[in-house]
Design brief:
Elements lengths: L12 H14 L5 E2 L11 H13 L11 H15 L8 E4 L1 H13 L5 E5 L4 H9 L3 E5 L11 H10 L4 E5 L11 H13 L3 E5 L23 E5 L12 E4 L2 H14 L5 H7 L6 H24 L4 E2 L7 E5 L7 H12 L1 E2 L1 E2 L11 E5 L4 H14 L5
Parallel strand pairs: 1-11, 3-4, 3-5, 5-6, 6-7
Antiparallel strand pairs: 2-8, 7-8, 9-10, 10-13, 12-13
The protein binds pyridoxal-5'-phosphate (PLP).
Length: about 375
């Protein structure tokens, strides 16, 4: 038996941390989970009610490969309501989470060997999906001063120095929560156009923003952008495995053929129910106020607990800490925090195998009382600075 090289992608370290945390829980410890990036809340009740109804009234067969027309239409309407952007339902593709969207987007936009720029640290699946599809990630490290985010200047420099075919941006980003300003997104779009780069914008953390930087879709200044989004985060529907893309019209048929062959369709039950997610704003905003309170507790409490250098947490539910004054082995520090404080935290190596040895990510998607207790426990650890 042989195993392919492209199958040799990195594991999700966060899953290993979660397993270790669950093990401690099984041993009787009360662990605070700050490792996983998923809401602690279920799908909105309107969504769950609609799913229950569909279970008894719908046959729930295959759906169209590009998605149920009613859902595509509702998503297109959302772009008018949320961003004032006119999107045709034809441009909307429903996907199996944004994860399915990345596979379709990368396959439709790039041939094997293409080179895609990505700001590091980054959500690990980007680099792993790229590798599995024989595409090459070109890491761009702008550092703490730029909030670790992509900048037009860094992209322009990379495009001059090396061959590039595409660029992937994410605002707000995982693991940092840092955002890119609307003006900078426009400038990045200009650079992409100048160097003929396909731009993919991961907007999965939209609507989870704390007002420090305005939220903008890449579509506002680039009608050729591929926008990826999901019901997983703001809409609190991770396990329903449903997301969407907005793609330029000339790409739709290619994506349809790929989706037909790779997935046939996205689960029909999730699609019917997701239409209602857009009516659940009151419940979803209540979830959001919990994240706001959590963020305040951590932004005030983490520096007092020894985590002095935090990336701007403009959005999402993450805080990224530079711990180079504490350690050069973030995995060991995470193990210590779990063993001595019973708090599960993700080491930066998940998001940047090279420079993540001196960073950690705290997720604050859990309940507020857990955040306050986490700060108490971290203070008791008495972390020593170099
Ligand atoms: C930045 C980012 N993009 C995409 C995803 C994938 O989400 P899903 O496939 O559930 O839509 C995640 C999940 O954590 C993420 O953090």
């Amino acid at each position: 038996m042989t195993l392919s090289r492209r199958g040799e992608v990195d594991p999700f370290i966060v899953m290993d941390v979660m397993q270790a945390a669950n093990q401690r829980e099984a041993e009787g410890h009360r662990v605070i989970h700050m490792e996983v990036g998923q809401p602690g809340t279920p799908a909105p009740s309107l969504v769950r009610d609609e799913a229950a109804h569909a279970l008894t009234t719908d046959k729930l067969g295959y759906a169209e490969a590009l998605g149920l027309p009613a859902l595509r239409t509702r998503i297109a309407r959302h772009y008018g309501e949320a961003y004032g952007a006119e999107i045709s339902p034809e441009q909307v593709v429903v996907t199996s989470g944004s994860s399915g969207g990345f596979q379709l987007a990368f396959l439709a936009a790039f041939d094997a060997g293409a080179r895609i720029a990505l700001a590091m640290p980054a959500y690990p699946a980007y680099r792993n999906i790229l590798k599995a599809l024989d595409l090459t990630m070109v890491p761009i490290r702008t550092g703490a001063a730029a909030g670790y985010q992509m900048t037009a200047q860094a992209l322009d420099r990379a495009a001059r120095e090396t061959k590039l075919d595409g660029v992937l941006i994410a605002s707000p980003a995982n693991p940092t929560g840092a955002m890119i300003s609307p003006e900078e997104i426009e400038a990045i779009n200009d650079v992409a156009r100048r160097h003929s780069l396909t731009l993919i914008s991961d907007e999965i953390y939209h609507r989870l923003t704390y007002g420090t930087v305005p939220e903008a879709t890449a579509l506002a200044t680039n009608r050729e952008a591929i926008v990826i989004n999901s019901f997983s985060k703001y809409y609190s529907m991770t396990g329903w495995r449903i997301g969407w893309m907005i793609v330029p019209e000339p790409m739709v048929r290619s994506i349809e053929r790929l989706a037909q062959n790779l997935f046939i369709s996205v689960p029909t039950l999730s699609q019917i129910a997701a239409i209602k997610a857009f009516n659940a704003t009151a419940e979803l905003e209540r979830n959001f106020t919990v994240y706001m309170a959590n963020r305040e507790i951590l932004m005030a409490g983490l520096p007092a607990s020894g985590f002095r250098r935090l990336a701007p947490s403009d959005g999402a539910f993450y805080i990224y800490a530079d711990v180079s004054d504490l350690t050069d082995d973030s995995e060991a520090l995470c193990k210590r925090i779990l063993a001595e404080a019973n708090i599960a935290v993700t080491p930066g190596t998940d998001f940047d195998p090279k420079q993540g040895r001196s960073t950690l990510r705290f997720s604050f998607a859990g309940p507020t009382d857990h955040m306050a207790e986490a700060i108490d426990r971290l203070k008791k650890l008495q972390l020593v600075h170099a």
